[in-house]
Design brief:
mainly alpha; Growth Hormone, Chain: A; globular; 18 helices
Length: 413
């Protein structure tokens, strides 16, 4: 581990908090453009070019699946080109993607833009953010991760409405170009000025000595045979599958019950509560057992969905969305905490990359499975009941603690 031992991590003067700011901005634009913004692209590209929705949505699926493959190799990229270079590559790729989305004329350019977005995820996504913060923090790691990952939710709350507003006033092309310029102006200086490994260490990779690339390959093989790894990855993947299924179908489910305006309000409340949930958990998560906290979050989401299926009262439905949202953001905060505690820093980047890849592939099927069950049954009752069951199964799996702490990669001092 490379956390600066003996340093007051609570002090505002600690350099690690500047790294948190940089990671917050990275998450803000990466999730804002790369996840939440995809709904905007779907509507605007259909309107501008007359392309069918299946073409654009297929490009989104392609991007998510490609991202799930690329993040596996984050550890190797950190080892070969270094942290700052990887992030700058990710920023360049994301910027090129958003510019191409603004200027594109043909469908092949759409797939190129989404492929570039996948490279952006590799350089600026959750694996890199978690890895760099893991190296800077030990006692306040949970708070640092919560604050940084709140940038992801804020990207959805702020950037998407801003894109929609700008699109209405100056057009989609100008809106995307302007937002891209703002991203580069804000992110580039903080990455160059703040991002790096803790002082006094000579690192080519996240917390390991230079030249540990071969060990990273071996660590991935060992991880796949390690029970502690699977009892973290599998439940997170299952919970995210249920979560993605509910989020994508939320408005369609709620609109007939409470109207379009209130359905939109439910989404806003859920997103806002995700921010509150991350901040609240971040204040004391470092004193909690992350597996117990993770199981409690999954159980609360199951309870919220269960009550939501029993009621048609608008107040109750909005309250259920608020409870559900409280735990949404924490599903990406728990894995790095569990990995650090049980697998250690030597395998951290490899475990985060492989785990994120598995979770990404599994959760990508969530919206489709929920939609398929709804089509077969004619309502969302069975589909969301399935999500309740999945959350409870995930909570049970994450509480299983394989004996002993596995040493995935032996440190070379």
């Amino acid at each position: 581990m490379v956390a600066a031992t003996g340093v007051d991590e609570s002090s505002l003067y600690y350099r690690g908090w500047r790294v948190v700011l940089a990671c917050f901005l990275m998450a803000f634009f990466m999730f804002g453009f790369g996840l939440y913004g995809q709904g905007v692209y779907l509507a605007e590209l259909q309107r501008a070019h007359g392309w069918p929705g299946t073409l654009v949505s297929a490009a989104s699926t392609f991007s998510f699946l490609l991202t799930s493959v690329l993040v596996i190799f984050t550890d190797d990229l950190l080892d070969r080109i270094g942290l700052r270079s990887l992030i700058l590559c990710g920023l360049s790729a994301l910027g090129a993607s958003t510019v191409l989305l603004a200027l594109m004329q043909t469908p092949w350019q759409l797939y190129l833009a989404y492929a570039l977005m996948s490279v952006g995820w590799t350089g600026m996504g959750t694996v890199v953010i978690a890895t760099v913060l893991n190296s800077w923090f030990e006692r306040r790691r949970g708070l640092a991760l919560s604050l940084a990952f709140n940038g992801a939710t804020c990207g959805g709350i702020i950037l998407v409405p801003l894109l929609l507003s700008l699109t209405g006033s100056i057009g989609f092309r100008s809106a995307m170009l302007a937002a891209t310029i703002v991203m580069v102006v804000l992110v580039l200086p903080v990455v160059i000025g703040f991002i790096g490994w803790p002082g006094g260490t000579s690192l080519a990779s996240g917390g390991r000595p230079s030249g540990a690339g071969t060990a990273a390959v071996h660590s991935r093989k060992a991880l796949l045979a390690n029970a502690a790894f699977w009892t973290m990855v599998l439940p997170i993947a299952i919970a995210l599958l249920a979560q993605m299924g509910f989020i994508i179908h939320q408005v369609t489910f709620l609109e007939p019950l409470i109207g379009r305006a209130n359905a939109g309000l439910a989404v806003t409340i859920m997103a806002a509560m995700a921010v509150v949930g991350r901040l609240s958990l971040g204040l004391f998560v470092d004193r909690l057992d992350p597996r117990l906290a993770c199981a409690a979050s999954m159980t609360s989401q199951a309870a919220a969905l269960f009550v939501l299926l029993q009621s048609t009262n608008p107040t109750v439905l909005l309250a259920c969305c608020a409870v559900y949202g409280f735990s949404i953001g924490n599903m990406i905060t728990f894995p790095p905490l569990i990995i650090q505690r049980e697998l250690g820093s030597a395998a951290f980047a490899a475990a985060m990359g492989l785990g994120t890849s598995i979770s990404g592939v599994v959760s990508a099927f969530g919206p489709g499975i929920v939609g398929l069950v709804r089509s077969f049954t004619g309502s969302y009752t069975t589909a969301f009941a399935m999500c309740v069951l999945l959350d409870l199964v995930a909570a049970g799996i994450v509480l299983w603690r394989p004996g002993g702490r596995a040493k995935i990669v032996r440190r070379v001092d």
